[in-house]
Amino acid sequence: MSVVICVYTEDRWADILAAVASVRAQTHPALETLLVVDHNPALLDRLAQEYKEDDEVRVLPNAGPRGLSAGRNTGIAASSGEVIAFLDDDAVAERDWLRRFADPYSDPRVMAVGGRCVPVWSSGRRPDWFPEEFDWVVGCSYRGLPPGRVRVRNILGGNASFRRTAFDIAGGFASGIGRDGDKRPLGGEETELCIRLGQARPDAILLVDDRAVIHHKVPEARERFGYFRTRTYAEGLSKALVARSVGIGKGLESERRYTTRVLPAGVVRGLRDQLLARPGGARRAGAIVAGVLTAAGGYVVGSLRGRRNGTTFEVVRTGTVRSEEAAA
What torsion, rounded to 10 degrees, do the Cα atoms 198, 313, 43, 139 define? Predict the structure, then answer.
């Protein structure tokens, strides 16, 4: 298994070193760790110097356009493992992380395995207004996901692994979807890829094993309601792109259950907590309603933009990424 960690800023220097150290401490050793630097020459040079005598860590520049999708595609192309795992640059993996990923791949139908992302709040505790149903806002697993090892439509990109042949079948991550440094916090690139994979290989199995755990840092800026609102709006924009790529039926299949069952239950739970005088109950219920409305607004805006301007992203074949990297 190869591990790809995409990085973009020196502000996360300590986090990056911690992420790499957690990979090196795995009970199932990684074949290699690839640090893909997103158009930041100073960070590239600093990391290259840090790991120049480490044969297990490779540092390389993003060979495509700026953004997380192209960085991941660069890592895929440069890696040599039969399975490629992805870890966020501000997360650390538990020691059995790769072993939990590796086990299911004994079944040749398994094309992807994801895990559970646990938030580590910089303030020391979850804000009492922040609903667990919206932990995806901070890149973590959220209330409503099924427990255990289960089959899913898509996995979360910050704690994920794919069989290499999955990218030969479906192509790489789509550029134009997902994060681009500190710009608007879009997402959905892993959802779009997983749906494309399922369409290309209907017998493909995608799993989440909640024992494959990473701990994801949540900076204080992301504990504020302003970020919550911005991220939910961006998610709506992202879902519009995903639906445009793979169709509304598949693009919103899981979201329908989430919005019709999980979120209403969360509102009821928040109001009940308020009646029981538990801190933040009404605010959690209000945050759920606000998140739904903001995401819906983003989806409408994204859909209208898509109809007016056409598709603004492209799917990169992994062979193309290899050629670009060789040229670089």
Answer: -50
Computed on alpha carbons and rounded to an integer, the radius of gyration of the chain in Å comes to 19
Contact present, 171 and 317 (Cβ < 8 Å): yes
325 residue type, one letter = E
Task: Give residue-wise pLDDT tens across range 194-241.
Answer: 999 999 999 999 999 999 999 999 999 999 999 999 999 999 988 887
Give backbone dihedrals phi and psi of 236, rounded to 5 degrees, phi first: -60, -45
Nearest to 32 by CA among 64, 54, 49, 8: 54
**Considering only CA atoms, which of 110, 129, 109, 113 is closest in space to residue 121?**
129
Both structure tokens of 141 = 């697993």
How far apart, in whole angstroms, are the C-alpha atoms of residue 202 and residue 205?
8
pTM: 0.89
Query: Is residue 127 a contact partner of residue 162, using CB atoms and an 8 Å limit?
Result: no
Q: What is the DSSP string of 106-132?
A: GSTTEEEEEEEEEEEETTSS--TT--G
Three-state DSSP class for residue 173:
coil
Contact (Cβ atoms closer than 8 angstroms) between residue 88 and residue 214? yes
Helix (H) or strand (E) holding 206: strand 205-218
Within 13 Å of residue 21, how many CA atoms lie on the same side as its CB? 8
Q: Which of 151, 260, 251 is nearest to 207 (CA)?
A: 151
